[in-house]
């Protein structure tokens, strides 16, 4: 997948995990695990799957 990017949060933690979504609240790419965390925040963040962008 040549167009794949990396999860911003995981990169800050030293990991290179491929993104699956965009968090419009944080304005950054997120992986599957981070997307779940963002959706559980209070208030929940708007997470958009990359296939919908």
UniProtKB/TrEMBL annotation:
Domain B box-type, chain residue ranges per copy: 2-50
Keyword annotations: Metal-binding, Zinc, Zinc-finger
GO MF term set: zinc ion binding
Protein name (database record): B box-type domain-containing protein
Lineage top rank: taxon: Eukaryota
């Amino acid at each position: 997948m040549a167009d794949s990017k990396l999860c911003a949060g995981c990169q800050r933690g030293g990991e290179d995990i491929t993104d699956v979504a965009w968090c419009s609240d944080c304005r950054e790419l997120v992986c599957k695990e981070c997307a779940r965390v963002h959706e559980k925040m209070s208030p929940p963040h708007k997470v958009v799957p990359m296939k919908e962008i």
